[in-house]
Amino acid sequence: MKGGHDLGGQTGMGPILPEPELQEPVFHAQWERRVFGLTLAMGMLGKWNIDESRYARECQDPLTYIQNSYYENWLEGLEKLLLEKDLVSIEELKQTADTPTQMEQSLSVPNAEIAKKILSAGAPSTMQMNSEPRFRSGDSVLVRANETVGHTRAPKYVQGVIGTVTAQLGCHSFPDSNAQGVHEGKFLYRVIFSGVDLWGHSSTQAEVLLDLWEPYLDAVTR
């Protein structure tokens, strides 16, 4: 924390000034609403999964990613996927909204009723595993530093930090592999971290709970 109010962001990028949650609008502009709708609609074509979508947003210049707004990053990711999956060409992306785009006739496009069912039902991430979980509640674990190029759901601010397992949440689809099109399951744990360990301020009484997959964690003997 900075000054008790501003949440620190990336080193050298200054503090983050979040809007009060109860006052923050869902969308700050009409174009954000359209990007959100387009992203959901295109995802229903089944050409990529949610982790591929997240990874596509991350595959930008790091400085651009940080400087972009939330939905600017969504748009960057969507355009990347549309090009990679040969759903549109660069020329078509540059066209105006009034110019029709030629897409594959074989695509299965859900109507409004089916889309509502898809959005309301979702899809489970749980998977079956024959092995036993490595950690139990109460175990101390160290979050590994991510030195590989690729998608991860282990936040950078907890990498290299020790936490305590509070729950074993079963086996779920592993996002790092899923972003590469490989659907495999790994055990998931809820881990608690102290604010002191995360930010180094003795006055910080906060605790942070994160759900982290087993490959992110190493055992620690305290």
Supply database-style keywords.
222 residues, Cyclin A, domain 1, 2 domains, globular, disordered N terminus
How is this structure best summarized?
It is built from 8 helices and 7 strands; from the N terminus they run ββααααααββαβαββ. By secondary structure, the protein is α+β, with helices and mostly antiparallel strands. It has 2 domains: 7-121, Orthogonal Bundle (Cyclin A, domain 1); 140-220, SH3 type barrels (Roll), CATH 2.30.30.
Number of domains: 2
- Secondary-structure content class: alpha+beta
CATH topology grouping of the largest domain: Cyclin A, domain 1
Shape: globular
Distance linking N and C termini = 27 Å
Task: Please estimate the helix content.
Answer: 25-40%
Taken as a percent bin, the fraction of beta residues is: 15-25%
Low-confidence spans: pLDDT under 50, at least 5 residues? 1-7
On the 0 to 100 scale, the average pLDDT is: 86
By CATH's scheme, which homologous superfamily of the largest domain applies? Nitrile hydratase, beta subunit
Largest sheet, described in full? 5 strands, antiparallel
Q: How many H/I helices?
A: 8
Radius of gyration: 20 Å
Q: What is the CATH domain class of the largest domain?
A: Mainly Alpha
Q: What is the string of helix and strand elements? A: EEHHHHHHEEHEHEE
Side-by-side strand order of the widest sheet: 6-5-4-3-7
Helix and strand topology:
Layout lengths: L6 E2 L6 E2 L13 H14 L6 H9 L3 H6 L2 H15 L5 H5 L17 H10 L18 E4 L18 E12 L1 H4 L6 E10 H5 L7 E7 L3 E4 L2
Antiparallel strand pairs: 1-2, 3-4, 3-7, 4-5, 5-6
Helix pairs in contact: 1-4, 2-4
